[in-house]
TrEMBL record:
Bilayer-crossing regions: 53-78, 90-110, 122-139, 145-168, 180-203, 215-235, 256-279, 291-310, 322-343, 349-370, 382-403, 409-429
Stored InterPro entries: MFS, MFS_Cyanate_Porter, MFS_trans_sf
Segments forming a coiled coil: none
Entries under Pfam families matching the protein: MFS_1
UniProt GO molecular function: transmembrane transporter activity
Residue ranges of the region described as Disordered: 1-23
Source superkingdom: Bacteria
Keywords for this protein: Membrane, Transmembrane, Transmembrane helix
Protein name: Major facilitator superfamily protein
Amino acid sequence: MTEATNAEARKQRPGSPAGKAAHARAEPGILVDAEIDELPAPQPTRVGSRRQLAYLGLCLVLIGLNLRTVFSSFSAVLPEATSQAALPGWAVVVLTTVPVTLLGVFAPLAPVLARRFGAERVLLGAMAVLTSGLLLRPVELPAAGHLPALLAGTAACGAAIALCNVLLPGLVKRDFPHRLGLMGGLYTTAICASAALGAGFTYPVYTATGEWTLALWFWALPAAVVLLLFLPVAAPQRPVRHTAVRDGVNVWRSAVAWQVTLFMVLQAMMSFSVFAWLAPILRERGVDGGTAGLMVSASIVLQMLGSLFAPALAARFRDQRAINTTVALMTGAGFALCIFGPLDLVWVWAGLLGLGQGSLTAVALTMIMLRTRDGHTAAHLSGMMQGVGYGLGSTGTLMVGQLHQATGSFAAAGFLFLAVGLLAAVFGYRAGRDRFVG
């Protein structure tokens, strides 16, 4: 890349004065329109009044509020489900790994389905599948037990969430360009709150009812409510047949894109392992189920704080190597200290993990905007990051489960995440350099 090209590109950088207006339209970084390559360009959702537009915004935020409960709710009652349903060890590993893997597998299908049926209807269908999966998970089949329904329901939830992950940010960006900061903040906060609610309220429901199945069924209720609320908005939308036209650089051949994607892989390994295994880790250390759920919930709430400030800080500089390295090391150290650190300070370790993880996730997603020059390339990089990032990121939950099965404790997982945190720091350092995809 020539110096002249670098100079021209920096004019469009979010931190430069010439690029501030453009970046304001792009914030936050995860609001990437997956349908940006379509012709004709997708239009905003058709609503008849400002009140109906506000109702649409409420529905989109409530959808976000259901996108992480499937991950954190099962881990909150994992010991009870494992013992009462007589789940084999391999099944526990699969149940904590499959939904994350499917986020990557089904992500590329979302734009294809949206071109055929319209983004609103695909979102509606995804919420129907999510509700069905949540209802199916705790079902006990005659002569087969709980395992088949748990596997099928969990897989359905993972596929549905993958579609929502890809299409929902584009709808938020497209329908609320005049309130993008507000709606983007509400949407991202709702996703974090979803994980916190699943972690914090599942065990109390189990305590109140005495049934782990009822504690899991509980989360089908808010999903069903949102499905019914969104139905009158999405069903009348008339899909327009679109043609996909590739624009932007080939991200799969870009060294910068691979550095950003591997940074995303490593943060996903830690992020989803928090949802799947932090509560069981704390309970194995002697923390009771209710307190463990509250600790995970508090850690996730602190993720919101990190995700609020880290992208703005990262966007102020042309070079993000320092912040990427710092938050990666914070996350790896926080996770390891939750396993090895003094139990009296476990709230501190959980807080360190939450702040680090929230900041790490946010800056990894912000790299989409900071390392690209246009919306088309950003969309392609986002698709690459979601497909590879979630697909390989699920190996984190898989390895934790396998290490626990092999050793009988989570000690090995502590060393694993020290290593993952160090690798994330290395690739974060590389991805944070002042370079562009292509």
